[in-house]
């Protein structure tokens, strides 16, 4: 089993965050007015190359279902979706809808936090010492009116390109699953890519399967939402910057390893990669069916489209990612 290397002093999270932020900053890389961050790496040529990966026409939804049987337990007012019918077949049969010539129908409403299930973290989601993506003051970016600068709506047409699955759980774990608290390092990511015969590069949308969602489905949600979890090590910040990937998504609640690798810290990798690298992060993606297919045919790259809902001013969005092989 590979081990972590180059881990900073766990007693000094603030120093490690500051050092990584300075070393891996993309501020100004795409101009002062940028609203896309690393999604800028996906251009027309990258999408044409990605489209050529479709050979079988087999498609996979990488989304969990949005229903009340979800993982949320109320932390930060995050609840599972509440689905309510406003018109039903009963209303139609009993003539309560008021339509002419026998016409009837059904309508419904859903109420949910935008980050309660399979989702993207927008660029306005995380700040570092009061600064948002590209060095903007956070209080001028996100107000009670929403994200006035980098709202998720700007990404509505942009997130489509080459997807790559790194099934770290299958390559390094027991029975396809990494244990909670397992820190996935650059060495682990590289070893998994080599095992799959794929290269990671500019504009890729990387999907990292740890197997934690598989375990939660089998054993119950438990502390899936916010509790201990396998995830990316803080030391992967350099890899995330150097590879110039457009986005990364995992099958876990919080993307990075939990408990975090520092004393008295909360999501330190988020604090570097979102406001400084400008990286698009996906969480709670369901990668199991895709992973099984990739393991069977040995192909771990595919066309991936993962458009967020263009909710004006939102700092995150539900998504139904579709991988097509």
From TrEMBL:
PANTHER family: CYCLASE (PTHR34861:SF10), PTHR34861. GO terms for biological process: L-tryptophan catabolic process to kynurenine. This is Cyclase. Pfam families: Cyclase. InterPro entries: KFase/CYL, KFase_sf. One of its GO terms (molecular function) is arylformamidase activity. Gene3D superfamilies: Putative cyclase. It comes from the Bacteria. It comes from Planobispora rosea.
């Amino acid at each position: 089993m590979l081990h972590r290397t180059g881990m900073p002093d766990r007693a000094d999270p603030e120093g490690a965050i500051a050092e990584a932020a300075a070393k891996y900053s993309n501020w100004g890389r795409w101009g002062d007015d940028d609203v896309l961050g690393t999604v800028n790496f996906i251009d027309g040529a990258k999408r044409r190359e990605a489209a050529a990966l479709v050979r079988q026409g087999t498609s996979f939804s990488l989304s969990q279902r949005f229903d009340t049987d979800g993982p949320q337990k109320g932390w930060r007012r995050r609840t599972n979706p509440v689905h309510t019918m406003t018109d039903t077949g009963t209303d139609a049969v009993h003539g309560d809808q008021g339509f002419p010539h026998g016409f009837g129908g059904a309508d419904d409403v859903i109420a949910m936090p935008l980050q309660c299930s399979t989702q993207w973290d927008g660029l306005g989601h995380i700040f570092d010492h009061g600064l948002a993506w590209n060095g903007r003051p956070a209080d001028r970016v996100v107000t009670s009116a929403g994200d006035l600068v980098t709202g998720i709506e700007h990404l509505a047409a942009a997130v489509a390109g080459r997807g790559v699955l790194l099934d770290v759980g299958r390559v390094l774990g027991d029975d396809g699953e990494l244990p909670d608290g397992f820190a996935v390092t650059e060495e682990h990511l590289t070893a998994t890519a080599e095992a799959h015969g794929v290269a990671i590069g500019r504009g890729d949308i990387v999907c990292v399967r740890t197997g934690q969602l598989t375990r939660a489905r089998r054993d119950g949600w438990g502390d899936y939402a916010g509790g201990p979890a396998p995830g990316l090590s803080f030391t992967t910040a350099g890899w995330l910057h150097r590879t110039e990937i457009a986005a990364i998504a995992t099958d876990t609640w919080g993307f990075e390893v939990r408990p975090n690798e520092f004393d008295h810290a909360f999501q330190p990798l988020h604090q570097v990669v979102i406001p400084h690298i400008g990286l698009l992060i996906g969480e709670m993606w369901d990668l199991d069916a895709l992973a099984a297919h990739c393991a069977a045919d040995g192909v771990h790259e595919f066309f991936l489209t993962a458009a967020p809902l263009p909710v004006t001013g939102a700092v995150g969005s539900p998504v139904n990612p579709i991988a097509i092989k």
